[in-house]
Amino acid sequence: MAEETKRKTLVIGHKNPDTDSICSAICYANLKEKLTGRVYEPGRAGNVNSETQFVLDYFHVKKPRMVQTVRTQVKDIEIRETKGVRKNISLKNAWNLMQKENVVTLAAVTDSGLLEGLITVGDITKSYMNVYDSSILSKAVTQYSNIVETLEGVMVIGDENDYFGKGKVLIAAANPDMMEFYIEPNDLVILGNRYESQLCAIEMEASCIIVCEGAGVSMTIKKLAQEKGCSIITTPYDTYTAARLVHQSMPISYFMKTEHLITFDEEDFTEEIKDVMASKRHRDFPILDKNGHYKGMISRRNLLGARGKAVILVDHNEKGQAVDGIEGADIQEIIDHHRLGAVETISPVYFRNQPLGCTATIVYQMYQEHGIQVEPPIAGLLCSAILSDTLLFRSPTCTVVDRAAAMELAEIAGVEIEGFAGKMFAAGSNLKGKTDREIFYQDFKQFEAGKVKFGVGQISSVNTEELEDLKSRLLPFLKKANQEHGTDMMFFMLTNILTESTDLLCEGTGAEQLIGKAFHVAEREGEKNQAESQVICLPGVVSRKKQLVPGIMIAEG
Known about the structure:
elongated; single chain
């Protein structure tokens, strides 16, 4: 349950988003957060057009984050957040942490969180089974604090922050006369409570003596050790146990892997790392953030239980219009007002589809149904979306429900509908400085009718001259777009809001004939050039969703 609460859900519209797609995503995410207390983030699958940007600026709302794909990433799966450790901790400490956390791998990190190396249960096992070197404690440059901690001892003389960096480890089991032959300068000597043995080890310039079984150390021995620079540690363990345990005080840095580490970024896509993980015998793989800081571990088992990104689709329900990677996403809901498409879901979802002029109208209904107050900026976005999608109530898609909703929302937002709509449409039709590509993809969607694939773009404007100028500009681009998308036909609607008509640009074999059949447009008499044949005037046609696309579907069927 805690994981579900923490999980973020993306609310997103279709590619090449229009005002309804953007505004509905923002407003529905706002509603869901108020209802559930969970995190819902609005997103966009394309650039914001001029009309939508005007609306966002007018109501001081930030545009949603661009989302190019919803393919499952490492950050979407459950990362085991095992804390990183310092590379100088002892093997014993590392082992205890592994047992406590029930893990087999620990990451050594710097103070700033950068990964330095990995230590595994196998590495610790090898340190016991494969090492017979009595000087390995010094080769590992073991800090005295590690030895004190491992032996549960006390530093009687010396500094715990110093290191044992030279010499071997040995047990003083013989009498002092024999000890003189095998104790060398800098050695670490484990011994008992015999005064003579302690004195001999210090005189032979040992770096450290470990006095076992909690035996006391005389003032004379302490003073001599201080003068000779010999550290003294006392431990409650017997000599045998101390000798076994001291090995565990070595730092993990001596045994951990530091080179050729296989790491993954939390932004990596899961399908791209599966093969790498399968080819290696490692149990765990460290995950880093974009700055290279250690985040946690994942295993192959984590990938098996991975779920896609949680997504809510608004203003569309067709795979061809959805953000890339939607087939692997965990679709939670669909809120739409278009015809039924072909988005497949993993499990049953909440699907609300109503024959209204705008998705924003449905979203407003849901605010009312749940008794959630609509704040002025949210009301402004919803109202703008309705005005845009219904072309100020001129579109045949507009219903009395859309009109009533827009009126109520305009009052809450404090805008005068006619004046505001005029400014909004003017901003949307201001195409100065825009390339043909930017204009074409400002509002573009793809469809299928039987075996025919076609695309439809649209510009709605109150400026007749500007629409006329676009004919000559977009006709050549239509051919290029048709080739880029591999479609059979390509259309572009130049819709005049004032005259409630559309000049339709056509590209592709049989495109003009199909439109003629769909809308009963008679062939013109006399000669006509190629450009004229590619532009068909459709009086009364202003809606792509309810007029143009259904007409094409019926004619092709």
